[in-house]
Amino acid sequence: MDDRTLEALGLSEAPREHPLIYPGAWPTESGLLHQNRYLRLKAMENRRLAKWMVEQPPGGFRAGKTGDGPVPLNYALMSANQTLVGDRFPVISVGSNACPAQLRHKMEGLGVSSTIPMVKARVTGIGIGVSAYVSPLGYVSSSPFHTPGLSRDLFITWLDAAQLEIVDASEGISDPDGEYDRVLLPPEDFPMALESGELLGGAYLYVHRYGVLHGGSGDPRPHPGERQLLTELLSESRQLREWFGDTPEEFSSRARGNGQLCEKGTRLFADEGRLTDSGLRQYVTGEPANTVYDDIHPANSVPTGAYHTGRTPDGFDQRGAGVVRLSSAVSAALGNPQLAIVQNAQIPPARHERLGTLATVIVAEDIPAQETRRVEVDHSLRVGVGLEPGEAVTVRAARLPHPRRRWKDTLFGHANYVTCRVQDGDRASAEQEVCLLDTLTLELLGVASGDEVVLEGFPYDDGTVPVLQLKAIRTSEEVQERRKELHGGDMTSRYPSSLDALGTFPDLPWVFLDRRLWSGLGLDGQWLATVRIRCSRSYQLKKELREMVFLLGIAFIGVVTVLKSVVWQAASLAVLVLLVGFVVNVRLRSRLNQRAKRIGPRRT
Question: What pTM does this model have?
Answer without folding.
Answer: 0.87
